[in-house]
TrEMBL record:
Pfam families: PapZ_C, RapZ-like_N. This is UPF0042 nucleotide-binding protein. The keyword ATP-binding applies. It comes from Lachnobacterium bovis DSM 14045. ATP binds at residues 8-15. It comes from the Bacteria. Signal peptide: none annotated. The keyword GTP-binding applies. GO terms for molecular function: ATP binding; GTP binding. Residues 162-281 form the RapZ C-terminal domain. SUPFAM superfamilies: P-loop containing nucleoside triphosphate hydrolases (SSF52540). Keywords: ATP-binding, GTP-binding, Nucleotide-binding.
Length: 289
């Protein structure tokens, strides 16, 4: 198993980093008391879903000096453990606290800079023993995300963004989580051919029918070109989920066919994950139509 201790200066982005690690498949626990770390590790060894654990530790977690002893103990158990330390310049930290109107946990009723000084002193030894230090003073959120991905996702099958291609029927409503909605009701409808009506876009007969028309292949080419243009833009902006919804009247024939075709064309890309869903493909048969 892998344990990543996420720590650093208050206001440097620890909470944001924990959310990013959670998206990367880590089981995240924030503000964990120091004395519970070994108990969490024991639990993780018994739970398949907790093989990658990120523990948020800061000055509120107890006597940080004890971390060194705990780290050595875990390493002796052949557990891979790293410490990520997030830092930022004092001026930047002060500005962030003022913008959020939060009190520094160690200010104790004094000015923010006094709390920052106390925290730096208490975390100095931990910073020296950190596996990685990221200064977030001049990083945008998406830049911090990129740094964390480069450091902690190389050994995993992690993708910057996960794309879902979703077929649906307009008569059942547009999927509420759609990012892009594509209407293919302009294509010839196999529903009006008796032999084809019971079949779906997963059947070769429907696929051959829909894709025999010039407008189908021309539209698919343009759709693929647009999606390939947009994906790197979304990834660079830090978007991690994209739902492309393709709809026809009932979500059974044309939308399923086009969704399958687009999925096949986008497969094998290294910079995003991909899956396909057909939301309404069986609803007509369930209603006896």
């Amino acid at each position: 198993m892998k344990v990543l201790i996420v720590t650093g200066m208050s206001g440097a982005g620890k909470t944001t980093a924990m959310k990013m690690l959670e998206d990367m498949g880590y089981y995240c626990i924030d503000n964990l008391p120091i004395q519970l770390i070994d108990k969490i590790v024991d639990l993780s060894n018994e739970t398949a879903e907790m093989q990658k654990v990120a523990l948020g530790i800061d000055v509120r977690s107890g006597n940080l000096v004890n971390i060194s002893e705990i780290v050595n103990k875990l390493k002796a158990m052949d557990i891979q453990i790293d410490i990520l330390f997030l830092d930022a310049e004092d001026e930047v930290l002060i500005k962030r606290f003022k913008e959020t109107r939060r009190n520094h946990p160690l200010a104790l009723g004094e000015r923010i800079d006094k709390g920052i000084q106390r925290e730096r002193k208490s975390l100095e030894f931990l910073k020296k023993h950190s596996s990685c230090i990221i200064d977030t003073s001049h990083l945008l959120t998406r830049e911090l995300k990129s740094e964390i991905e480069k450091i902690y996702s190389n050994e995993y099958d992690y993708k910057n963004m996960f794309v879902t291609i979703l077929s649906f029927g307009f008569k059942y409503g547009i999927p509420t989580d759609s990012d892009l909605v594509i209407d293919v009701r302009f294509l010839p409808n196999p529903y009006y051919i008796d032999d084809l009506r019971p079949k779906t876009g997963n059947d070769k007969e429907i696929q051959d029918y829909v894709m025999q028309f010039r407008e189908s292949t021309e539209f698919l080419d343009k759709l693929e070109d647009m999606v390939r243009f947009l994906l790197p833009k979304y990834i660079s902006e830090g978007k991690n989920q994209l739902v492309i919804s393709i709809g026809c009247t009932g979500g059974k024939h044309r939308s399923v066919t086009l969704a399958n075709e687009l999925y096949n064309r986008l497969q094998g890309q290294n910079d995003f994950g991909l899956k396909i869903e057909h939301r309404d493909i069986g609803k007509d048969s369930l209603r006896g139509k």
